[in-house]
Amino acid sequence: MWRVGTVIALHDETPTARTITLEVPDWPGHLAGQHVDVRLTASDGYSAVRSYSIASAPNSERHIQLTVERLPNGEVSPYLTQELALGDRLELRGPLGGWFVWRTQQTEAIQLVAGGSGIVPLMAMIRSRVAAASDAPFRLLYSVREPEAVWYADELQALSAQDHSLKLTRAYTRVVPKNWPRPPGRIDAALISNTSWPAKLFPTCYVCGPTSFVENATDLLTTLGNSPDKIRTERFGPTGERK
Amino acid sequence: MALISRGFSGRRSEADVKLPPGQYLTTDFPVLSAGPTPRVSLDQWELTITDGTNVLRRWDWKSFRNLPTDNFTVDLHCVTRWSKLGTSWEGVSLDTILADLKTSASYALVRSYGDYTTNLPLKDLMHKQAWIAFRFGDKDLAPEHGGPARLLVPHLYLWKSAKWVRGITLMEHDEPGFWERLGYHNYGDPWREQRYWGD
Fold first, then answer.
1. Which of B6, B35, B37 lies at the smallest CB-CB distance from A88?
2. Is residue A193 within 8 Å of A221, Cβ to Cβ?
3. What is the mean pLDDT of chain A?
C-alpha cells in the first residue's frame, strides 16, 4: 500500500545531502532503524523506487524525516535533493524492515557505528532514545570523509553535551579538523577499543554504512570479542569489484 | 493510480524490459546481510540434509567438490530493487544434492553459518532451478557474497538464496525463515512483485 506524504520542510545537511520532512496523515508509526520505499512516477507512468532509512523518531504528528545523499549517477536522489519542493507530494511504502531496529524497551548498552550516510537509521535510534526518555547507555562512533561531511552535527553535539550516557566519537577518513588527535584513516582496532563499549558488557551493536565499511567494522568488533549474534548490520552499495 | 511526481522524467534503459516490476538495473554487486560476514574455513565446512531429526546426507568440502557441477548464467533480483543480469556461476545442482532421496516433505528450511534461515517449497529447489554455488565469475565465491558456498535460487528474490549455506532441513509443513518472519513475503516471486507481507 502506497501512502502519500506532503513535503513540509527541507533542510540541507551538506551541499550534497538534504533532509526532507514529510507529513503523512495515515502514517502508522515506526521503529527507529526502519526504512521506507519512495516511488517517483513520470507523467507517462514510468516509475522508479528506492529505499531510504527514516531519520526521525516516532512522533504523534505523523511526520517522518528522510535524509538523502545525492549520488552522482543516481536516478531518484538528484530529484529528491534538488527538484523536490515544499508542498510537493511523495508516494511512500512502509515502514519496512524488522531487524535493524532499536526498541525503546531495550535497556542494554548500545554501540552505534556509522559510516557516512549510514548515520541515518542510527540517528533515528538516538532521537528515539531521547523522545522516550530512555537511559539506555549509547555510544556512537561516526566515521566521515571530512569535517564538512558530518550530518546532524549541531544536534549530536548538543545531545552528547547535555547527556552523559550518550557518548559521541567522530573519526575522519580523509581530512581532519585542526589539532585533531587522530590522523585521517579508516576506523581501526585501537579506535574501536578506545571509544566503544567493551565486549564484556555485551553491548548490542548496530553498524550501518557502505559495504567495505561494515565489513571492516564488524570484523573489528568480533575480533575484540563481541559475539556475531549481538551485531546487526545494514550495508549499502557494491563491494567494489565490478563485473 | 500513481501520483505523478512533478518534474520527474526518470532514466530508462533498454534493459528495463527484461526486469521484473519495480526493479532497476545495476552492474555492481551490492551486498546485503543482517550481521557480520561469517568466516568459514574449508576444513570445518559441511553441508547436511536433515529431516529435522536425522541427518540424511552429509558432505565435507572435499566430498562436496567431488560432486558433478554445472556452469550456469542467471539473472539476480534483490528485494531492495536492484537486478543484475547475466551472472555466471559454478555450483552443484540441488537435483544432484537431493537425488534419489525418498521424502514425504514438501518444504525446505535452508540453514546458514551465522544462523540465517530461509524457507521455500521443496519443488522450487528441483528441476535445475537451484544450486549450491561456490564460484562466481571465474573466482572462488567471496565471503561477503556467501562463500565458501551459497544457495542460488534465481527465480526468487535473492534473500531466498541463502549465503554461507550449511544445510537444508526437509519438512512436512512450511515454517518461515529469518526475513519471512520479519515482514518479507513467504514465497518471493519477483515477477509477481511479492516483496513484503500482503503482496
1. B6
2. no
3. 94
Domain count of the fold of chain A: 2
Instruction: Give me the domains of chain B, ranges plus CATH numbers.
Output: 20-26+43-192 (3.90.420.10)
Min distance A50 CA to chain B CA atoms (Å): 7
Residue numbers in A near B114 (CB within 8 A): 228
A211–B9 CB contact, under 8 Å: no
Asked if the model's pLDDT at residue A229 lies above 50, the reply is yes
Alpha-carbon distance A138 to nearest alpha carbon in chain B (angstroms): 20
Contact A47 B6 (CB under 8 A): no
Cβ pair A235:B31 closer than 8 A: yes
CA distances from B114 to A189, A223, A234, B163 (A): 22, 16, 15, 9
**CA A239 – CA A231 distance, rounded (Å):** 20
Q: What would the pLDDT profile of A74-132 be if each residue is shown by its tens digit?
A: 899 999 999 999 999 999 999 999 899 999 999 999 999 999 999 999 999 999 999 99
Option in A51, A232, A242 nearest B28 (CB)? A242
- Say whether the ipTM exceeds 0.85: yes
Residues facing residue B108 across a β-bridge: B120, B170
Contact call for residues A225 and A200 (beta carbons, < 8 A): yes
pTM of the predicted model as reported, rounded to 2 decimal places: 0.93
What's the pLDDT band for A202 if we cut at 50, 70, 90? Answer: very high
List pLDDT tens digits, range A131-155: 999 999 999 999 999 999 999 999 9
Q: Which residues constitute the domain of residue A114?
A: 110-236
Of B148, B141, B140, B143, nearest to B64 by C-alpha is B148
- My answer on whether A62 and A165 are in the same domain is no
- How many residue pairs bridge chain A and chain B with CB atoms within 8 Å of each other? 119
- Please count the CA atoms within 13 angstroms of the CA of A68 that sit on its side-chain side: 26
Contact A4, A23 (CB under 8 A): no
A119 and A46, same structural domain?
no
